[in-house]
Amino acid sequence: MNNATDKIEHAEKVIKKSMLTPEQWDTILNSSIKIVLIIIVSVLAVKLGRKLIRNLLKVNARGPLQVSERRSVTLIKLMENVLAYVIFFIAALTILPIFGVEIKGLLVGAGIGGVAIGFGAQSLVKDIISGFFILFEDQFSVGDYIRVQTFEGTVLSIGLKTTKIRSGTGELHIIQNGMITEVTNFSLHNAVAMVDVSISYEGDIEHAQNVIEEHLETMPARYEEMVKPPEFLGIQNLGPSEVTLRIASEVRPMTQFKISRAIRKEIKEVLERNNIEIPYPKMVLYKQPETKNENANV
Fold it and tell me: Are both 100 and 148 inside the same structural domain?
C-alpha cells in the first residue's frame, strides 16, 4: 500500500514539474505574438517595397531616362529579390533573440567569415557587381545581338555572374560579367543596310541610276523593316571591269542582313528587265598567227 502511494505521489510531482507556470505561459504567448508580428510586418514590407519599386520604374519609363520593357522586368525581379533577402534577413536577426540566441557573436563571426570569403572570392564579387551594372545601365538585353571581345551573337540570358551568348552557328558562349569591358550592341538603334551593285563600263550609268531609284521608292511598301526608302548614294568604286554603285537603306535593328539580300535580289531583276548589263568574268581567246619559219619547216 505504501509503495502504491509513493508511486502516485512521485507521478504527481513529475506532472507538476512538467506543467508550465502562468509566467512561462505568458512568456510563450508574448514571444509567439512578437514572432507573428515580425513575420507580418516583414511580409507587408516586402509587398510595399515591391510596389514602390514598380512605381519607381514606371515613373522612370515616362522620364527622360527611359528603360525598355524587357529591362524593366529584369530590374524589377532583381530588386524585388534583393529587397526580400534583406528584409527577411533582418527579420531573422530580430526573431533569434526571442529564442535566447545571442546575435552579437553571430554577427562578429559572420563579419570575420565574410572578410575571409571576400579575399578568396574577389573575382566572384567583381562578376556580381559588373552584372548588376550591366542590368541597371541597360547595356544590353536578352535577345539583343552583341559583340563582346571576340564573341558575337544573340544574348540568351543575363545573370549577376555570367552572360550567355549564342553565336550564329549555334555555339553557346558563357562569359563572366567581370570580363566584359567592351560591348558592341547592334540592337539598340536603327541599322543601315549597305548594298553594292556593279554594272559594266559599257552601260549607261545615268539610265541605271534612274531605274534603280525608281524601283527603290517602291520597296518600303513591301518591307516593313525599312524605316524610309533606300537611298542611291552614287558611284562607290571603279573596278577593272565594272562600275560599282552603292545603295543605303535605314532599317530596324538587326534586319539589315535580310534587307540587304532583298535589295540585291530585286536590283538584279530590275537591271535584267531594263537590259542593263551586270558584269561577269569573260575570257578572250587570242590565236597567234603562224610565223614564216613554221611555214618553211612545213
Answer: no
Question: Nearest CA to 262 among 193, 209, 200?
Answer: 193
List, for residues 121-149, the tens digit of each pLDDT value.
677 777 778 877 887 777 888 788 889 88
CATH for 154: 2.30.30.60
Domain count, the chain: 3
Residue 245 lies in a domain: yes
Domain range for 42: 23-120
Report the Cα–Cα distance between both ends of the chain, in Å, rounded: 156
Within 10 angstroms of residue 281's Cβ, the number of other Cβ atoms is: 5
The pTM of the full predicted model, rounded to 2 decimals, is: 0.54
Neighbour-count burial for 268-278, b at 16+ CB within 10 Å, e otherwise: eebbeeeebee
Shared domain for 97 and 151, answered yes or no, is no
Q: What would the pLDDT profile of 24-39 be if each residue is shown by its tens digit? A: 667 777 778 888 888 8
Query: In angstroms, how far apart are the furthest CA atoms of the chain?
Result: 158
